[in-house]
Amino acid sequence: MPEVAFTQPLGQITLRGDLSDPALRTTVEALTGGPVPDRLRLNGTSGRGAAWMSPDELLLFVPRDEVTAALSRLDTDLAGTHVLAADVSDLRACIALNGEGAREVLAKLSPADLSPSAFGPGDFRRTRLGQIAAGIWLEGQGARVVCFRSVADYALALLRQSAADGAVGYF
Question: What InterPro entries would the database entry show (predicted)?
């Protein structure tokens, strides 16, 4: 089963606006190195990328030391555009599940369909893990979970217990 641990603090920016706006799309690509993701997708990684959160919201990942510059660029490039950009780096924690079995650890806790045919590399889901809201995706040889920092210790314990309980053998 995978090793479960907090990652280094991530740089995270919530960006709300018209995701079809050319200026927004150009700026997101410049900041993350990839295009605005399609519905239920993530382009990039937790180190640098963008996740689809809703029809008018993205979660941008940038290195923590680049958040201020990224917000400044969003403010400059999108001046006059109806958007909201906010640093949420301290709002959410990230947990890494590294190693084989990460999908099953998540599936035991989430109502989302995490079968390989429904959830693969580049897919992003907002879901529940036990009693908490979380965003999940596959990354490297495992998975990542973002959740509110206020419930991060609970999420870590929940994921570790799921991993320790062993495989069910469904996937």
Answer: SoxG, TrmE/GcvT-like
Domains (ranges, CATH) in the chain? Answer: 9-87 (3.30.70.1520), 91-164 (3.30.1360.120)
Which residue in 149, 109, 139, 167 sits closest to 42, CA to CA? 139
DSSP 69-106: HHHHHHHHHTTTS--EEEE-TTTEEEEEEESTTHHHHH
11's tokens: 């740089």
Token pair of 154, please?
A: 């609970």
Q: Which residue, 38, 8, 12, 13, is CA-closest to 25?
A: 38
- What global pTM score does this model have? 0.94
Give the pairing type, strands 57-62 and 124-129. unpaired
The b-or-e profile of 132-159 (16+ CB within 10 A means b, else e) is bebbbbbbeebbbbbbebebbeebbebb
